[in-house]
Predict the 3D structure of the following.
Amino acid sequence: MSERGTELAKQLRALTPARVGLGRTGVSQQTRDLLEFQRAHARARDAVHARMETAALVASLAAASGVKALALHSAARDRATYLQRPDLGRRLDETSRALIGEQASEGSDLALVVADGLSALAVERHAMPLIGSLISRLDGWRIATICVVEQGRVAIGDEIGAALGAAISVVLIGERPGLSSPDSLGAYITWDPKIGRTDAERNCISNIRPEGLSYAQAAAQLGFYLREARRRKLTGVALKEDAGRLEA
């Protein structure tokens, strides 16, 4: 690579974690780049298979938020089943269904659900600071018991939100790891949660982590969607974000 090409590659790498401007030895990649790729791939695989420390997360969330937290489990009994049967990750198991039934109340404004998804690492790193930033923006909102779900997928928030009588559910979930982002957190907002809701009826905020969308930025977007969902009584493709109205 020429001196000019090397400088351009260096500038590009300063702007993105993507693998751009990699050097060559003949027609092959340099050993250091190949080893770094293998390391990143291993980290992504580890994130998919890692188990969430549910009990510790429940205790931390309850202490930090001042809201009761509850540990639940999907109908996928283990990680292998979860990865092979997405449908089971969308529903609670019988024990959890009974537990959530005991939490039912006259209704709440918001049900917060934390699910491991495809990266327990993302949840353990980012769910608590994001919830702390969000709750500080929700003065006067009635927040139901926070539910932490093992082997959960996005749609499990529909069953939980309906059981808690919540007007809106927010599911914070570990996203599919990338080679430069094994700990990316996603947030899914659903008005009037109930079994059978589709992805078109949700709004999504993605890549929540210090290297992506900051906690403050994500909380501002969540706050916007929550206020608009309550005002307009809907979420999904009909509800668009107006960046000019976001509160930093």
Observations:
- Strands lie at 24-25, 28-29, 69-73, 108-115, 146-150, 166-174, 185-191, 202-208.
- The chain has a mean pLDDT of 88.
- The helical segments are 3-13, 31-49, 54-65, 79-84, 94-101, 120-135, 156-163, 215-232.
